[in-house]
Amino acid sequence: xxxxxxxxxxxxxxxxxxxxxxxxxxxxxxxxxxxxxxxxxxxxxxxxxxxxxxxxxxxxxxxxxxxxxxxxxxxxxxxxxxxxxxxxxxxxxxxxxxxxxxxxxxxxxxxxxxxxxxxxxxxxxxxxxxxxxxxxxxxxxxxxxxxxxxxxxxxxxxxxxxxxxxxxxxxxxxxxxxxxxxxxxxxxxxxxxxxxxxxxxxxxxxxxxxxxxxxxxxxxxxxxxxxxxxxxxxxxxxxxxxxxxxxxxxxxxxxxxxxxxxxxxxxxxxxxxxxxxxxxxxxxxxxxxxxxxxxxxxxxxxxxxxxxxxxxxxxxxxxxxxxxxxxxxxxxxxxxxxxxxxxxxxxxxxxxxxxxxxxxxxxxxxxxxxxxxxxxxxxxxxxxxxxxxxxxxxxxxxxxxxxxxxxxxxxxxxxxxxxxxxxxxxxxxxxxxxxxxxxxxxxxxxxxxxxxxxxxxxxx
Amino acid sequence: xxxxxxxxxxxxxxxxxxxxxxxxxxxxxxxxxxxxxxxxxxxxxxxxxxxxxxxxxxxxxxxxxxxxxxxxxxxxxxxxxxxxxxxxxxxxxxxxxxxxxxxxxxxxxxxxxxxxxxxxxxxxxxxxxxxxxxxxxxxxxxxxxxxxxxxxxxxxxxxxxxxxxxxxxxxxxxxxxxxxxxxxxxxxxxxxxxxxxxxxxxxxxxxxxxxxxxxxxxxxxxxxxxxxxxxxxxxxxxxxxxxxxxxxxxxxxxxxxxxxxxxxxxxxxxxxxxxxxxxxxxxxxxxxxxxxxxxxxxxxxxxxxxxxxxxxxxxxxxxxxxxxxxxxxxxxxxxxxxxxxxxxxxxxxxxxxxxxxxxxxxxxxxxxxxxxxxxxxxxxxxxxxxxxxxxxxxxxxxxxxxxxxxxxxxxxxxxxxxxxxxxxxxxxxxxxxxxxxxxxxxxxxxxxxxxxxxxxxxxx
Amino acid sequence: xxxxxxxxxxxxxxxxxxxxxxxxxxxxxxxxxxxxxxxxxxxxxxxxxxxxxxxxxxxxxxxxxxxxxxxxxxxxxxxxxxxxxxxxxxxxxxxxxxxxxxxxxxxxxxxxxxxxxxxxxxxxxxxxxxxxxxxxxxxxxxxxxxxxxxxxxxxxxxxxxxxxxxxxxxxxxxxxxxxxxxxxxxxxxxxxxxxxxxxxxxxxxxxxxxxxxxxxxxxxxxxxxxxxxxxxxxxxxxxxxxxxxxxxxxxxxxxxxxxxxxxxxxxxxxxxxxxxxxxxxxxxxxxxxxxxxxxxxxxxxxxxxxxxxxxxxxxxxxxxxxxxxxxxxxxxxxxxxxxxxxxxxxxxxxxxxxxxxxxxxxxxxxxxxxxxxxxxxxxxxxxxxxxxxxxxxxxxxxxxxxxxxxxxxxxxxxxxxxxxxxxxxxxxxxxxxxxxxxxxxxxxxxxxxxxxxxxxxxxx
Lengths: 460, 460, 460
What we know:
Three copies of one chain form a homotrimer.
Chain A: H1 2-25, H2 35-38, H3 44-77, H4 83-110, H5 140-163, H6 170-193, H7 213-231, H8 252-271, H9 282-308, H10 313-328, H11 336-360, H12 369-387, H13 404-434, H14 441-446, H15 448-453
Helix pairs in contact in A: 3-4, 3-5, 3-8, 4-5, 4-6, 5-6, 5-7, 6-13, 7-12, 7-13, 8-9, 8-10, 9-10, 9-11, 10-11, 10-12, 11-12, 12-13
């Protein structure tokens, strides 16, 4: 009954947050005469604020729809008996993740960035203002940045959920989702986007990650690697001689549909990252992302076809997603032809990474999250240093003849790897030694739906 | 063959509307030189109109996507043999509902509100201008308000469809959808949003329902209560001793996915209700709605878990929706910490209401619509009077030390209950005594898909 | 092993494009100091550009979601054994179609339109600037037009995919998708939208197709007709005496859901076609589209019901889509009452066309694409000439007392038919004589999922 205490602890922490928050913000009404908060805009500056606010929110809503994409995609990859478990994991991780990001994470990440009202305090390593979106952070500008970037934070958890699916304990997933969104993700995010030290590297324009190719996908993918490694492969995945078995997904149509919803949301993920429609680069960003996605898919389709004479649907979908990931750090900086090259390389990296995970490292990743998000997320950071053409924010990659940006990106990549592997190992190790990561093997065979949730996904 | 005549009547009414409309609007081209209608905007005031128009439309489109959410959600909750029936009910009710709302309902609701061109005539009890969006109401401003609020009207029907599913006659559902969207909903809506008497109560700021927590969800839920009660429980739901049986949904993955689509659309539902992006409150509204949704889900998950040691996916999804409903009337008025409290209370109310419906009143509600939308919709009205912090539109709840707004909300709640219960009972009673509400028990056992639609949803 | 060479050729062409493009655009950075490209807008003119850019992009994203609609819809109509095949066809056709439209198609279509930067060169018959979005076409304005209209181009392919499903070779579908998006569609599109000769007909306002009722849906539907005819009916569809058998779809819930996603995206398809939110007509467009969709659905529902006493879900969904198609060319020009009439006629045309295809011409169209998109796409062109009320862009139909516009529309219709039937026949004939259009009958019976993709869609 260890889980019982655990759940009580989680619930108590949440209640404590709320009470603290209520206490902390009863005087919030005081700021109510600030122009920015409620009144209609009156001049062109105000109208511009409204336009950019609407853009940020609408793109944020689109990113939320990626949760439907993750849900479809992951569910399709898994066995029937674990469908409900994955759906609940990927649903609840954004619930607890978003709540903790509201309470803590956002303040650690964007404190000191001065990106919106109430985010003044912070240093090069961590932020410390904006807790609970209270006080001066109770403002339309701060809520809008929170909403958009909360969607990023929770996506990181959902990426991990896919890699550890079909054998991971449900409540342990929620615990590390809270740790991730409350601390690990915000700290690294602060270094890159919150005015931290990586953003101010003295090489190139400092390390650049336009829409989270590294911060979100790289980190999620690397942590998924640690999690999948430490929880071990699914029972029956590997034979005694080390050769892998294929465990088919129960509904491949969900994979295709999930991919489409992810692409739909990804437009918001990338183009919305300007936080402004008045930054006219948004159409080039969206076009780059789409070009990279489709070439990723095409590359993987034809590679598979040449090898097997079959057109592999599932791989093709992952190829499109790999293309999206690989361009995410660089979508604003590179020309269209480079987006096509990046998509092709993403497909190649995906294939190579999947091979290494499955056959060399023998890490069991049911949905391919490590290869799609991790390997291509890291590659995404380098694409900035290689393909940036200097036409946006003065970011100049190798193709302009300068290697400094690539150096900055490489430092960012190494830091990301060190932070994610280090803290990821620590968290999963502690959880393994205390509560345990894995459901009993008997329950794994019966299916996690019955064990964790008490019923099956399909009936009748 | 009574249904045959019925269908002819419905169809004839529709044709009559169209002909009347055509006759009534042939001179519509006369207004075509009005600035607001077609030409490009030329100055900042025009640009502001365009920005708010785009915001309203895009949010309206998002709300339409909630129909996909309702369709998934409801279908997942039901037995395989009734899937098609529910999908067709929830599809066709917005078709006939929207058509009648175009012809009649909108004019009754917004006539006299002067919210857009051609909506001048109306009194405190009912509106009477804007029929068929014709005459002066043939204008971009009126179309945009119509499109947005039509989405609200038809959502009310779809809420009811879930509660009466698996035993209700298909064509009778369409008939009350027409009555609801053509008369019942618009009248109450007029009192709250069309410049009617509830909006002008001399307490607080008058009764406030920001985005339809009461008008849409409360009314839909209360009518669902009347409908589910009068049609009676599904055959086999209750044992002779009055104890209920659980009838499992046939595909719980549809429930999780439907919930995600509903949340996606709900951003538009709430944040779009400003009808203006220049009302910068939109980001606070969206954030509040999301915080309430996730705490609703978390609350229900842990309550269920403490009781049963299982993490109930289905209840969690309904918890998220209950959180959305409970904040819908108050999303613009309350601070973030209150949104969290509202989400928690929504979860508790959901659990209590489900228990009362299932075990005490023995009303069979297959999808939980009464508890999610009805109970929490009513609660939503009160949250305005309790948690409004005075930072928006001068609406001040108990937490600012004033009880007047709560009084106004309470009057609104009582009015809503009286109107919905009274007219709902009348409609369902008349339909029951004439055409009958319920399919024959033999057909109910075979499944409504075969009976009403002639084929099964799944084959092969 | 003919397919092997084929795939190599396709892949080589793609690589060649990319290299050419890279070579061609390395100097693209030169334009980077142009105002329009990266910097924030500074005055009202700049802000207006930003607003319209955001509108165009967001509507473009919505159109992308139609791919999810097509995927659901088509998959639901088909047999279980061909699900994966259709999903992969409809996924990959937009991948290869979009890539070729980036390289070639867009330049042929919009060159000479001067709609955005770098699109200056072209004549009345074809455009020739903007290849690879390179040179001067590497600009935010051009990317935005490309992104929006690429979504239109690829929709054409997906329409065809449905009509030829369950027996067509996968890679052959990709080949004609490339030909279609790279040449056939852009050429006709240039005549209508790229400043070509149809746009400048000396009758009425020239031929008008507001959002692609003819260009996209008409062309796609007519080509689907040619393809379905030349590939022949599915094995078992027709008995030796010529009477058709019904082949039920394997999951009708997918059809209802797909229809909802298509309607959701269709708002963007039509209202976005202004490419400007400052064109305030957008709300009237969206309202017209919705009114036509719902009356299409209602009409078909009741017609079916009167005949069979059953409420046909599948037909109703197609009725809604037929309504959308029929208004697509005219959504901006007609008053609301006409939209209702157009929806009713769309339902009637759908029923008639389905009957003719199934029983008279014996063309096997598993999803009804020819009737939904083809028949109603052609009708859509005429609706402009009949119902335009002169309130937008001075387009005046019969109801204003003038027949000139109808003449222009008729010429456009005949041209569309001639071009689509002619080139469609040529392409499908050549493909049939060389590679062959159809999978072996044995493989058709086993299912294309196993044959083309090596695994089944569902397992466990």
